[in-house]
Amino acid sequence: MNEQTQKLGSLKVGDTLPALQTGPISRHAIALYAAGSSDLNPIHTDIDFAKHKAGLPDVIVHGMFVMGYLAKIGTEYAPAGAVRRIKTQFRTMTNVGDNLVCTGKVTDKQSRDGATILTCALAATRQDDVVVATGEIDIVVGAA
Amino acid sequence: MIDRSFIGFEMEPFDATLEKGQMELFAKALGEKNSIYSDESVARAEGYSSIVALPTYLIRLGTRDDLTYGLFDKLGIDLAKLLHGEQEFILERALCAGEILRGVKKVVDIFDKKDGALEFVVTEIQYHDEKGRFAGIDRCTFVIRNR
Questions:
Q1: Structure confidence at residue A1 (pLDDT)
Q2: What residue range is the signal peptide (chain B) (predicted)?
Q3: Structure pTM?
Q4: Is the minimum CB–CB distance between A33 and chain B shorter than 8 Å?
Q5: What CATH number was assigned to the domain covering residues B7-19+53-145?
Q6: Residue A78's domain spans which residues?
């Protein structure tokens, strides 16, 4: 068991994981995510489509970019393969320039199939305190 | 309204390779700091055959014109009304660059709320590895804004 796993393994229900911040999300960040994920849906990549076809003021951020950031709560502090499940509900659109704080709070810790699994509630909150996405992550923190 | 008889509709199986360059770009796009997801030497030192896929990278494998837009066309979904409502990934183990997974995409549910103003389509892709072992699930809920 490495140091990362030991740290996570010592967390109890109610504890929080270190928060992550996206910083203001630029069109460049959206373009990079479109390239990395191959999700080139015009609602994310074409301002003319966003305005005139989808009736939006601008392109919107991929929901999956937000989920990817939420998943970092489980990848930056745990070894590869530790994240066994992640679920996200996209509650509202994320816009260009939004700055999200991604948080995780331990809601459950139990032994399952010979492993200890930490379940954390996830939330991505906008600069004006609107929660744009919520979710849940299961992280293996060691053998039972 | 989407034809409810599509519930249970299963698409042709497809093979998807976890491509290293694409995985590196994906990790970069998310600003991932743990280099096991982007640096082969780090991944190998940890005992993996190559860089490891981020948990949400599974979305990339199922993002293909035939699967994504092909299904929207078949169901008659207008892209301009489409939103991503919910997403879940279940991962059996760490997946590495170079692996080939076989996926099968299925429509598991279609329902509506607010007198049809919002319709929901739930799809699921089950992935198995080259040895036929279960590797993971991509479960997605799309929302269609009809009004």
A1: 47
A2: none
A3: 0.94
A4: yes
A5: 3.10.129.10
A6: 3-143
